Model the fold of this input.
Amino acid sequence: MTDPPRHRRVREPVQVYLDEADRSLLEELAARTGLPRAELLRRGLRRMADEVLTERAPGWSFDRLVGALGDDASLPSDLAARHDEYLYGGEHAS
Done:
């Protein structure tokens, strides 16, 4: 039996040239956080957008989350209500 197809987001590769200091900073952040370098760059881009693009409505970045899980039939129908249980296992006090 094969797994159902996962929701795939279209991504576009971007090439970035970094000087030695920025490359070292990126490597240090990756080592400290355990995050991939690409994710660190994406987060930095979003953080700067929040600071610079102040004319956007508050919460504009929430739109990126809507539909992020796709319509995978294997997702539990009570995910919103029981998210802590799914994330942490068992009962999780709020």
Summary: Residues 1-7 have pLDDT under 50 and may be disordered. The radius of gyration is 18 Å. The helical segments are 20-33, 37-52, 83-88.
